[in-house]
Design a protein that fits this description.
With 315 residues, the protein is of the alpha+beta class. 43% of the residues lie in helices and 22% in strands. The longest helix is centred in the last third of the chain and has 24 residues, at 203-226.
Length: 315
């Protein structure tokens, strides 16, 4: 017996503040939920035998969840629905989001978490929702660490280590971030494979970089908990340089990194898998950032980009 869908479900987007890539190798990372990541609503289709119709206009997605499809989004959604005991026919699912897709802001995890919650309900156990989400995430990213699914399901700011209970972090000050989509497409699986090849080829320097990324997370955690935004900014910039040494930055991301620092950011880095996706820049605290935020925004707009600002605080 398949279960019916709930009428609404939602999930957060995410931003990795520190520790991406190293987290795949068991080092810690810190990520934060972006509220209002994705909201799905489900209505019954007139024909109960028709495959589910999924429409997310902001991501230019309009497809049928046909179990034999090769489309990765349709396959991932089918697998999540099947795992949760949900239907594969007779519904239309519509998504609303302001997250850009495939930009390192957790769009695929938001989709798989919200899809699981459409079947299991908004109050379903986080562990079960995560398990379902990871089934879909493996179709997108092959060997996901799980950080995206966790943050999409829980929100807040979390310290994450693979296979361990996450630690929620309470920032002493809210963290003002400018998020700058580079508009460059990238694939998480390709970037993760690139890092793996580099570490296999050069194990000693490779492991040293991963270990340094982990140490930066420890320092960054203290900075978040004590409200030391200057130190957090330094850790973000060090993290960008280390990720660059692993080969996952790009000339465009490096240009955006320098643009942020030249226009008043306390620190900046690529976020997520890199290669493209987004840069994040830490703004000075609110009283000071009133002056630096518009200056930085103008600088990015002149590069034909559309940055946006989020203030991360514990929910
Ligand atoms: O898919 P993205 O761009 O959000 O990157 C995920 C973060 C990685 O550490 C690169 C991979 C992972 O599974 O943790």
């Amino acid at each position: 017996m398949t279960r019916d869908l709930h009428s609404h479900a939602s999930a957060c987007g995410k931003v990795i503040l520190l520790g991406e890539h190293a987290v795949v190798y068991g080092y810690p990372a810190i990520a934060a939920g972006l509220p209002n990541g994705l909201s799905l609503s489900a209505t019954r289709h007139a024909d109960p035998a028709k495959p589910i119709h999924l429409k997310i206009p902001a991501w230019e997605l309009d497809l049928h969840l046909d179990a034999i499809t090769h489309h990765p989004v349709a396959r991932a959604c089918c697998e999540v629905l099947r795992f949760c005991g949900g239907p594969l026919q007779g519904w239309t699912i519509t998504g609303q989001t302001s997250l850009p897709a495939r930009a390192g802001l957790g769009s695929s995890a938001a989709l798989t978490v919200a899809m699981a919650r459409l079947v299991l309900g908004e109050d379903a156990e986080v562990d079960t929702v995560m398990e379902a989400s990871l089934i879909g995430e493996r179709i997108f990213h092959e060997t996901p660490s799980g950080i995206d699914s966790l943050v999409a399901a829980r929100g807040g700011i979390l310290r994450f280590v693979r296979s361990q209970e996450p630690t929620p972090l309470t920032p002493a000050l809210s963290i003002p971030l400018m998020i700058v989509p580079s508009l460059l497409p990238r694939s998480t699986a390709t970037q993760v494979a690139k890092v793996r090849r580099k570490i296999e080829r050069f194990p000693n320097p490779g492991q040293a970089i991963l270990s340094a990324l982990g140490a930066v997370v420890d320092e960054g955690m203290t900075a978040i908990q004590t409200g030391n935004l200057a130190d957090l900014g330094e850790m973000m910039s060090i993290s960008h340089e280390l990720l660059s040494a692993l080969g996952v930055s790009s000339p465009r991301l490096d240009q955006l990194f320098h643009c942020a620092l030249e226009h008043g950011a306390l620190g900046a880095k690529l976020t997520g898998a890199g290669g493209g996706g987004c840069l994040i820049a830490l703004l000075p605290p609110s009283e000071a950032s009133e002056s630096s935020e518009p200056v930085m925004k103008t600088a990015f707009c002149q590069l034909n980009l559309q940055p946006f600002v989020v203030n991360l605080a514990h929910p």
